[in-house]
Amino acid sequence: MSEAMVEIHNVTKVYERGKQKVEVLHGLTLNIPKGDFVALMGPSGSGKTTLLNLIGGLDKPTSGEVMVAGSRLDQLGGSQLAHWRAHNVGFVFQFYNLMPVLSAEGNVELPLLLTKLSSAQRKKNVAVALQIVGLSDRAKHKPKELSGGQEQRVAIARALVSDPQLLVCDEPTGDLDRSTADEILGLVQVLNREHGKTVVMVTHDPKAAEFARRTLHLEKGQLLEQAA
Amino acid sequence: MTKTSFVIANLFRKRTRTILTLLSVIMAFVLFGLLQSVNSLFNAGADFVGATRLMTQARVSFTQPLPTGMVPKLEAVPGVERVAYSMWFGGVWQENTPLFVFAIDPLRYRDVYPEYVMPDEQWQTFAHTRTAMIAGKVLADQYGWKVGQKIPISSNIYPQKNGSKAWAFDLVGIFDGKDDAWRKQTNIAFIQSEYFDEANSFNLKGRTNFFILKLADSKQAQAVSKTIDAMFENSPDETKTQTEKDFNLGFVKQIGDIALIVHWILFAVFFTLLLVVGNTMAQSVRERVPELAVLKTLGFTDGSVLFFVLAEAFSLCLFGGLLGLVLATALGAMVEKGTGGQFVVRLDAGVWSIGILAIVLMSLAVGLLPGLRARRLRIVDALAGR
């Protein structure tokens, strides 16, 4: 786990809310090695999601360097970032964010429309991803026909179908009961341990954080400590 | 799944709304197709090909009557076989039902229009009974008229010499058409021009609205038309000689500037349609801001998201527009058949081209603003519901 997946150096992020400027991250520096599973914890407004957005290439820092999977994200343009996200990172959201008009397999196939894979190959990859999350028998179901846990499994299948090195999870169990949450976290752990995915997960839940290899605490836009 | 099927799936996320919007697009393009082809019909130049009859009227308007004394001169023109004449009576049946009634010279009319079929004895009775009237089968059937009845008809134009607008005619015959097309044109009635001449209070004796010229050879139609109009040029009764089709169109043109009417109707229709479809598209994008943000998160570029929204607008307009134009083509064919070929409402290549151009322009008009909004979405703001 020595090679770095995420290298963040002296990053600040300032949001402009009307005439007011709010500095959310203050000169933050962070390294996450490949194959790591990091839980980001902290109170609301501490900058967890902002940091996750920078790591996932959804936003750019106001200053500082963000290097993820070998690319300087702070130097990429909008289309380059989109291309980078399509090939390097999978996202899992708290509220699943599936397309309600598509079936489970349609949702999982969506990122593959950005690749040059044939229809048959896409179908094959989708089947594998659904099998990994244990939802092969629900492939034809629409999101509204699935439980919360099943929806989140579909979201995880969508995140890993294009085989990214990095999984970015924003409160992946925030909307689930304890037992379902544990199942989902167990699945993420398997993806980390058996499939070698680097995982960065934002959570408020200490029990969820226990599934990570380490936990980082953020407060007021700064990293407080690094717990093993 | 393909990008196309994804676009279609998104289009039908609110099935009822999409179907209602589609119906309004279809209706708009049906109207567009029909009205635009009517417009083309009225703007088309004179076509003498295949004309077996010509109509001669006063150059200014057919409402300005010409002297029936022109008949021998017209019949002397090479290529003209027989001449009939007809005067618009403007009958009203019962309270306020307008009828197509013309005052004619019976036997001349029969010669010029052999397509109208009636027993010879009825033609003879018509020709020799001053107050006689004959009615087409469609008209007679519609009002239950029988031969031998007295038919009271009033005229909004011509009162009798005693000042009364109420006329009464003896129905002496009911004519039919020789075939289906002509049968559909038997919704008219004829009265004797001789009687009309004497009985009306206007000083119109020996005058008529138009002449119908039966030609010996249809190939001579254009030459005959030119000869007649040249013959009466610079006279008090200058003429305009045209085919029956053009004459009928001219009749309809009396309503007003057809092109202007058509353009204003289409403007209103398309303006309303823009609001309806534009609102549907705007609402559709507004409803799924988080989904569009997820698409961008997955790696779809801003341009791809713009493309998806434009593709939805284009699919909606293309499907509705094409279906509308196809329906208009079918309806036009029905109108043509229903009027026995008198009104050719045909969607030609020109109308289709303008229709397709309208589809493209409308797609851009309704899709571009919501598309640009989707393109501008910042992922983090959209996901956070800001």
How would you describe this protein?
The complex is a heterodimer of chains A (228) and B (386). Chain A is an alpha/beta fold and 228 residues long. Chain A is built from 7 helices and 10 strands. In chain A, helix 4 (119-132) packs across helix 5 and helix 5 packs parallel to helix 6 (178-193). The longest helix of chain A is centred in the last third of the chain and has 16 residues, at 178-193. Chain A is globular and about 50 Å long. The mean pLDDT of chain A is 90. With 386 residues, chain B is of the alpha+beta class. Chain B has 2 domains: 3-45 and 256-384, no CATH class; 53-216, no CATH class. Chain B is 54% helix and 18% strand. Chain B has 15 helices and 14 strands. In chain B, helix 2 packs across helix 13. Chain A binds chain B through residues 53, 56, 58-59, 78-79, 82-83, 85-87, 91, 93, 97, 99-102, 105-106, 109-111, 113-114, 119, 122, 158, and chain B through 1-3, 6, 9-10, 12-13, 290-291, 294-303, 379-380, 383.
The stretches of 5 or more residues of chain A where confidence is low (pLDDT under 50) are none
- Whole-number tally of structural domains of chain B: 2
Helicity of chain A, in percent? 25-40%
- Rg of chain B, Å, rounded: 29 Å
Strand order, main sheet of chain A: write it out: 6-7-8-3-9-10
- Helix content class of chain B: 40-55%
Q: Specify the number of helices of chain B.
A: 15
The shape of chain A is: globular
Low-confidence stretches of chain B: none
SSE series of chain B:
HHEEHEEEEHEHEHEEHEHEEHEHHHHHH
